[in-house]
Amino acid sequence: MVVSRAFAAAIVLGVLASGIAMAAPEEKVQINVGRTPLDQVVRMIGKAGNVNIVIPPELAGKTVKALQLQGAPVSEALATVLMPYGYEAVIEGNAFIIRVRQVGLNH
To answer: Right CATH number for 5-100 from 3.40.50.2300, 3.40.50.1820, 3.55.50.30, 3.90.76.10?
Structure first.
């Protein structure tokens, strides 16, 4: 995977600051889907944004009814599609990890 310097710097700064962080990659994505499995939509975002994403098996079986994003950064696109289902994307190492949304002091 080729990572832009800005993206790499955001990852390093985020990881140094908190161990796990949402980085804001500069890559912007355009997605327009209807009635598509959630795991497939997440894969589309990863491919369009040229980022690694680890998807848990629990996402299978959930369906996105409709989604249209124009020029959204990868992190915002993932947050938009995952939040209604109770998931979030965090950066660990060189990948976005999809996990159940953690409700706590920082949220």
So the answer is: 3.55.50.30
